[in-house]
Design a protein that fits this description.
The chain is of the alpha+beta class. The chain is built from eight helices and eight strands. An eight-stranded antiparallel barrel has the order 1-3-2-8-5-7-6-4.
Length: 246
C-alpha cells in the first residue's frame, strides 16, 4: 500500500510539473497606439499576474520592427486550475483595474490599437515540462516556431520525436530551449509551439547549421515512425521588450 501511494504521489507530481502557456499575439493596426498597449502590459497586467503567482511574463516584438507589427505575450501557469482562475482574479484586483483604466477607456474607432488578439493555450512537453529562461542581454533573439501537423496522430508522433530524441539534440548543438508546448486550443491545430533563444542572429544561424549536420538528427529524421508528422512551419523572430521578464 505504501509503495502504491508513493507511486501515485510521484505520478501526480510528474503531471503537475507540466506548465500551461497562454501565448497571445496582438495584431497591431497600422499606426495603432502601441504605447498604450505597452503601458497596460507593463504597468497593469504584468504586476497583476505577478501578484497572482505568475513569476515570469514574456513580452516580445517583431525582430526588425515592421509596421504594422505584433506584440507577443507569453504567460506560464503552474497548472490548468491556475490558468482557469486568473481572469476572475484580475476582475477582483482593484489595483489592476485602476492601472488598466486608460487601456480600457481610451479606445474607439478614432483611436485604433490592434486588429485582434490571437491566442494559443499550450501544455508543456513531458520532456521539457517548464520554462527555462536564458541569461538575457539587450541583443538577444528569440525564435518562436509553430509546427502544424497533418492530423492528431501525426502531432502525437512529432511530440514523441521531441521528447524521445530531438530535445537532446537541441541541447547538444546550442538551440537554447525556452518552452515547448502541445497546443490545446487556438488557431491552426493540430500543432505544437516552442521557443528557443540565441545571443544574436549569428549564433542562431551557426547553431541551426550544427543541428542540420548532427548525425542523430539525420538518423531520426529518416526514421519511418516519425514520417509525415509535420506539415508546415510558422516561424517568427522576436526581441524582448525592456519590461519583459524573459
Amino acid at each position: 500500500m505504501k509503495k502504491l501511494l508513493l507511486l501515485l504521489l510521484l505520478c501526480s507530481f510528474a503531471v503537475s510539473a507540466q506548465e500551461y502557456y497562454e501565448i497571445r499575439t496582438y495584431q497591431m493596426k497600422f499606426k495603432g497606439n502601441t504605447a498604450l498597449l505597452e503601458s497596460y502590459l507593463s504597468k497593469a497586467l504584468i504586476p497583476a499576474l505577478n501578484s497572482y503567482g505568475v513569476s515570469k511574463v514574456g513580452v516580445f516584438k517583431d525582430y526588425g520592427k515592421p509596421e504594422p507589427g505584433i506584440v507577443v505575450v507569453a504567460i506560464p501557469f503552474s497548472s490548468l486550475a491556475s490558468y482557469a482562475g486568473y481572469k476572475d482574479a484580475l476582475e477582483k484586483n482593484a489595483t489592476y483595474q485602476e492601472a488598466a483604466k486608460a487601456y480600457f477607456e481610451n479606445v474607439g474607432l478614432d483611436k485604433p490599437m490592434f486588429e485582434k488578439i490571437s491566442t494559443y493555450l499550450a501544455k508543456g512537453f513531458a520532456g521539457h515540462p517548464s520554462l527555462k529562461l536564458p541569461i538575457t542581454n539587450p541583443g538577444r533573439v528569440y525564435e518562436w516556431r509553430t509546427y502544424e501537423a497533418y492530423n492528431e496522430d501525426a502531432l502525437k508522433r512529432k511530440i514523441a520525436m521531441f521528447n524521445d530524441e530531438e530535445l537532446k539534440i537541441f541541447d547538444t548543438v546550442g538551440l537554447h530551449n525556452v518552452f515547448f508546448g502541445e497546443v490545446l486550443a487556438g488557431e491552426n491545430t493540430p500543432c505544437l509551439s516552442y521557443m528557443v533563444s540565441f545571443e544574436n542572429m549569428a549564433e542562431r544561424d551557426a547553431n541551426w547549421a550544427k543541428f542540420q549536420a548532427n548525425p542523430d538528427w539525420k538518423r531520426i529524421s529518416s526514421d519511418a515512425k516519425y514520417a509525415n508528422s509535420h506539415s508546415r512551419t510558422v516561424r517568427k523572430f522576436l526581441e524582448p521588450t525592456s519590461y519583459s521578464q524573459w
